[in-house]
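Morning, I've got a small favour to ask if you have a moment. I owe you a coffee for this, so here goes:
>
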Amino acid sequence: MGAFFIARTDKQPNYSAMQQEEAEILALKALTYLAGVDEMMDRFVALSGMGPNDILERAQDPDMLAGVLDFFLFDEALLTEFCEAREINPEHLAQARMALPGGDLPHWT
């Protein structure tokens, strides 16, 4: 699978009022991280039903990015590992998920 490159800046985005564009950037960072963890990427490929090329082609698709965030939010160990490595508050991923398609649906848990 090809590498994903995300521009790195020292400025931390304000996730308290998450906009879709900010959510997409955070999801792309998560996807980039996921691409570097073979076992987890293989699991994402298997669960999503998409091949690596499909994922690469859809990397800008808000629906696919929502799925990436869902994947992280359902795996606490992966979520924690990613957030610690990137110095991101785990709540920001949940806020980002709410800003993407389907994120405004009621939560029944």
